[in-house]
Amino acid sequence: MSFLLPTRYLEGSSAIGFFASDTVSVGLTNGRKKKLKNVLIGCTQTIKGDLGGFKGADGVLGLGFGKYTFTTKVAEEFGGKFSYCLVDHLSPKNLTNYIVFGHNKIETSLMRSMRHTDLVLGGVYGSLYGVNVLGITIGFTLLKIAPEVWDPNLGGGTIIDSGTSLTYLADPAYKLVTAAFNESISKFERLSTEGGPFEFCFNSTGFNESLVPKLQIHFANGAQFEPPVKSYIIDVAPQKKCLGFVSAGWPGTSIIGNIMQQNHFWEFDLERSTLAFASSSCT
């Protein structure tokens, strides 16, 4: 059975095609294969707008949470978990990301460094993965960001999304974060940001990461996420770096994008509604 359905993306593009129920064969870690029945597959016929990010791809694997998603279907079969690790987007081609559905056997050293926080599923977030953010520290200063910025019931909230590259911050948080980092990069020559999403770009000649204060995102349950500097001071061209945040407006949902998630292991437990993470080389 199949039916026609449009899909619309946040930046305005849309795709129209057919959804059909099919059987999918997946490889297991023991070398065997397993067939998953009644998996919903989409076949795009028409694209409107700019979906350039998908050019050259044979397909898109959506990781959203919902009744009919691939993630939920696989989670039902393999214990309700999936995990992934993303290498630096500028890494050599021989280094690859990975994703595992089900229990992932990880090293003891990684297990010891894992931090856990709540995963907010359903409700106002729909098929997205919500997290409870309590605040952001730059250097040794906790920024005075209004609590409503992190509250999805008051126009804010935060999701963690592997399908979004950059990190979006609701405007009240964006202004404070960029102002804090601008102090440390103000001595470098500002460069044009025309044609790109960034507001702060500079000539990186003589730049050293030690000049930039550390970023910490504070999650509920005491979990602190401290990404490497290269995940928020981003290389965009030779001798050109940009501050990798974009304003989500206000009201607006903040998004922790995949560049910010790089060099970390992430485990989504859909049964227990928890998110675990730890710094990792992803090898």
Automatic annotation (TrEMBL):
PANTHER family: ASPARTIC PROTEINASE NANA, CHLOROPLAST (PTHR47967:SF69), OS07G0603500 PROTEIN-RELATED (PTHR47967). The gene is LOC115706572. It comes from Cannabis sativa. This is Peptidase A1 domain-containing protein. GO terms for molecular function: aspartic-type endopeptidase activity. GO terms for biological process: proteolysis. Keywords: Aspartyl protease, Glycoprotein, Hydrolase, Membrane, Protease, Transmembrane, Transmembrane helix. The chain crosses the membrane at residues 119-143. Residues 1-278 form the Peptidase A1 domain. It holds the Pfam family TAXi_N. Belongs to the peptidase A1 family.
